[in-house]
Amino acid sequence: SAAAASAAAAAPEAPAVMCIEVSVLSVVPPFVGGADDEASMTPEQRLAGAVAAKEQGVELYKRGRLRAALRSYDATLRLLTYPLANSGPGPGDAGPVNPWRGIQDAHGALMNATLLNAALAAAKSGDHRACEAHCTRVLDQRPGGDTSNVKALFRRGRARVLLERWDEADDDLVRSERLDPQLAREVALERRLIKQGRARGDASMKAAFKKVFGAASGGGGSSGGNAGGSGGGDGSGGGDGGSGG
């Protein structure tokens, strides 16, 4: 009986059973899942998938699911930019100018709209570098690019304010206001932040210079005072000698 009790105590306990309930909120279509799928798709399939993924991203953004929205926008961009498997357009097919650039050149409006949406979601999630990068792609001098896109300029300017890149931010904001005067109030608020940031930077620099060069100047003054005191002592000694004489 004692042996049986000892054996029972030594036996490992059965693992606890855990039940997990999973609710599926959204499903990404299989054809946007990887490079192999994208490489085998026709331009028409890619375009349909890109539009669907972008619309999904918009819905996810509205529900506050920023990371999921960014993944959907990324799927759209991959479908638009992944190189085509064929070497060029077929007979009677306009196709993209450069197959290595996928179908993005033929669908610049979709490309730019997706990049702007991705920039907005990245900014809201606190990734201001990603926001800046997305806006820069919109503004790039590329086929389908828009070097005067007001939304891209303003959003990049605001991202650069938060990145404390004052001069570049100011340039973007001034350009955006020039293109759309209705942004005057928002631009003024951002430029006020730039002014405050520059003032803080100037104050910090002055304090640093004062700390470095002020300490050196103070050290020199102290040394001069010591020398003067020593000279005074010598004169006093001479006077004493004369008095003794």
Q: Measured on Cα atoms, how large is the radius of gyration?
A: 34 Å
Distance between the termini: 119 Å
- What pattern of helices and strands is seen along the backbone? HHHHHHHHH
Mean pLDDT: 80
Number of strands: 0
> What is the percent of helical residues?
55-70%
Which regions have little confidence, pLDDT < 50, spanning 5+ residues? 26-33, 221-245
How many helices? The count is 9
Described by the principal axes of the CA atoms, the overall outline is flat
User: Main β-sheet, in a few words?
Assistant: none
Category by helix and strand content: mainly alpha
- Percent strand equals under 5%
Q: What does this entry look like structurally?
A:
The protein is mainly α and 245 residues long. It is 69% helix and 0% strand. The protein has 9 helices and no strands. The protein has helices spanning 2-10, 35-40, 43-62, 66-81, 108-124, 128-139, 150-162, 166-179, 184-244. Helix 7 (150-162) runs antiparallel to helix 8. It is flat. The termini are far apart. The model is unreliable at 26-33 and 221-245 (pLDDT under 50).
List the helices and strands and how they pair.
Layout: H1 2-10, H2 35-40, H3 43-62, H4 66-81, H5 108-124, H6 128-139, H7 150-162, H8 166-179, H9 184-244
Helix pairs in contact: 3-4, 3-5, 4-5, 5-6, 5-7, 6-7, 7-8, 7-9, 8-9
Entry keywords:
245 residues, mainly alpha, 9 helices, disordered C terminus
Short précis:
With 245 residues, this protein is an all-alpha fold.
